[in-house]
């Protein structure tokens, strides 16, 4: 179901369904000239009845057969995060109530003491309205129209422009994650990144031939069992004329993961189309930065592969030499994401010499055991970077929980036959040892953070700002991180 938002000028009586927001201090006189006396009296009575309400609640007042007033009675103090959640709840409510056209009085927002920001409220509704129905032959053509009755100064166009860019980036990420593996294989994924050039992003595609020449054998080893190509794609956004070091974001893009010869169980293997969600978040972030003309230099790098079983697939026990020069004994072909990231991280660090690096990956099931679907795991070699990411996550409600890294974990990844092995055979600390493995490929002590988003990238049930399926997790978090600290 599509959502359309339209701004209407002027102040006039309303004939359509109307939404209003009331707090304990709201004066009904604010709606003078908008509603008639009879309606105003109904609102006065409602306010008296609801003054002791302990939680935000929606209620519909039926004026006549085809005209309703939707009231949201507010109780708690609101911030940006809560404004967005209220917008999402609002969308849910009007959808379930089968209201297809409703008008919001823009001036109402500026008179509420426990302030709801109109732009963030609408942003929440837009994020909640996302649906992926590309492959449904029977399309529901219904639309929900939200009209904003505004006067000057009641819509901040600058904020609206920024939030539209974020919505665009988040939904692009969701689209990528939602695509099935037969459509979004590495060849197609690399092609879909080329149009980003139109936004002023420099896109460079390193194919199998170039990667072999570079010595990215860890990444290539993962994809060698597939008939599709393997790629490393970089996306550069230069939003400032200064030659300052860029911020770097690196994503795991395993378009489908069978586990290779360390084959996954058949149950839920269909979910492995979202094993490229880390890369999609990086793509969505770079697109967002370009759309909102962010005053920052940033680079995104994504390793795109398909982990398949064939006569040419990587075997357990194979040893590969990574781009860094370090050798890896591949004891489990289903611990493949770290091999892709190993080459992508070192390549990004050497080529771009970034100020910092953040990687995102649906890396381990162990992080879901630890944190469920409430937090992504954060591992980092830098306290300042960790603090910035944690704070950004809290502000947009894409939460992180810092997990430990320690040199004592290194011995669990040491190999008798190579510099290291790709799994910890002793057992335990699966997410930490994976992060400890990745840390070995940060060669120049660049501040680095690894976000294990396995529990956050895809949801079987609806979340606060999504309707189930691909969540787009990471785009809003990292956009806020950039905006608050580096612009």
Largest sheet: 8 strands, mixed
How many domains, in number, for the residues? 2
Percent range for β-strand residues: 15-25%
CATH-scheme architecture of the largest domain: 3-Layer(aba) Sandwich
How do the strands line up in the largest sheet? 7-8-10-9-13-17-14-15
Rg (CA only): 25 Å
Number of strands: 19
First-residue to last-residue Cα separation: 36 Å
Task: Give the overall pLDDT as a whole number.
Answer: 91
Report the principal-axis shape: elongated
Summarize this structure briefly.
With 487 residues, this protein is of the alpha/beta class. The chain contains 14 helices and 19 strands. The strands form four sheets. The chain has an eight-stranded mixed β-sheet, sandwiched between helices. Strands 1-6-5-2-4-3 form a six-stranded mixed β-sheet.
Notes on the protein architecture:
The chain has helices at 37-50, 80-96, 106-110, 118-128, 157-178, 186-193, 208-214, 217-223, 277-291, 337-352, 366-371, 383-396, 430-439, 475-485; strands at 2-9, 18-22, 57-64, 67-73, 101-105, 143-150, 202-206, 231-238, 247-257, 297-307, 318-321, 327-330, 356-361, 376-380, 400-402, 420-421, 448-452, 458-459, 469-470. It is an alpha/beta fold. The protein has two domains: 2-155, Leucine Aminopeptidase, subunit E, domain 1 (3-Layer(aba) Sandwich), CATH 3.40.220; 165-485, Zn peptidases (Aminopeptidase). β11 and β12 form a beta hairpin.
């Amino acid at each position: 179901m599509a959502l359309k938002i339209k701004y209407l000028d002027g102040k006039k009586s309303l004939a359509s369904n109307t939404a209003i927001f009331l707090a304990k201090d709201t004066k009904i006189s604010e709606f003078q000239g908008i509603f008639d006396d009879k309606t105003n009296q109904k609102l006065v009575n409602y306010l008296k009845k609801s003054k002791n309400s302990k939680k935000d609640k929606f209620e519909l007042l039926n004026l006549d057969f085809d005209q309703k007033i939707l009231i949201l009675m507010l109780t708690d103090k609101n911030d940006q995060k809560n404004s967005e959640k209220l917008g999402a709840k609002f969308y849910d409510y009007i959808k379930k109530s089968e209201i297809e056209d409703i008008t919001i009085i823009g001036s109402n927002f500026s008179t509420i003491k426990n302030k709801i920001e109109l732009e963030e409220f609408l942003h929440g509704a837009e994020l909640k309205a996302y649906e992926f129905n590309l492959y449904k032959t029977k399309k529901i053509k219904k639309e929900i129209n939200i009209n904003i009755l505004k006067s000057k100064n009641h819509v901040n166009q600058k904020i609206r422009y920024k939030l539209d860019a974020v919505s665009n980036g988040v939904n692009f990420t969701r689209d990528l994650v939602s695509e099935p593996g037969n459509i979004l294989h590495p060849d197609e994924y690399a092609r879909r990144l080329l149009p980003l050039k139109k936004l002023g992003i420099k896109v460079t595609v390193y194919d199998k031939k170039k990667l072999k020449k570079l010595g990215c054998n860890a990444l290539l080893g993962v994809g060698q069992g597939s008939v599709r190509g393997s790629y490393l794609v970089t996306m550069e956004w230069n939003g400032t004329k200064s030659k300052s070091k860029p911020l770097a974001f690196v994503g795991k893009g395993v378009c489908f993961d069978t586990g290779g010869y360390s084959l996954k169980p058949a149950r839920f293997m269909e979910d492995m189309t979202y094993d490229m969600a880390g890369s999609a978040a990086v793509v969505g972030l770079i697109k967002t930065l370009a759309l909102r003309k962010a005053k920052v230099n940033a680079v995104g790098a994504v390793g795109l592969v398909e982990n398949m079983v064939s006569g040419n697939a990587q075997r357990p026990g194979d040893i590969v030499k990574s781009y860094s020069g370090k050798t890896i004994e591949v004891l489990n072909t289903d611990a493949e994401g770290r091999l892709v990231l190993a080459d992508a991280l070192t390549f990004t660090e050497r080529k771009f010499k970034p100020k910092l690096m953040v990687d995102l990956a649906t890396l381990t099931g162990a992080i879901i055991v630890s944190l469920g679907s409430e937090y992504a795991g954060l591992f980092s070699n830098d306290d300042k970077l960790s603090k910035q990411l944690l704070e950004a996550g809290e502000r947009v409600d894409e939460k992180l929980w810092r997990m430990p890294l320690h040199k004592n974990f290194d011995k669990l990844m040491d190999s008798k036959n190579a510099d290291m092995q790709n799994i910890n055979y002793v057992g335990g600390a699966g997410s930490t040892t994976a992060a400890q493995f990745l840390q070995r490929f940060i060669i120049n002590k660049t501040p680095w953070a690894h976000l294990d988003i396995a529990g956050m990238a895809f949801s079987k049930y609806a979340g606060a700002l999504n309707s189930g399926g691909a969540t787009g997790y990471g785009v809003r978090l990292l956009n806020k991180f950039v905006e608050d600290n580096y612009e």
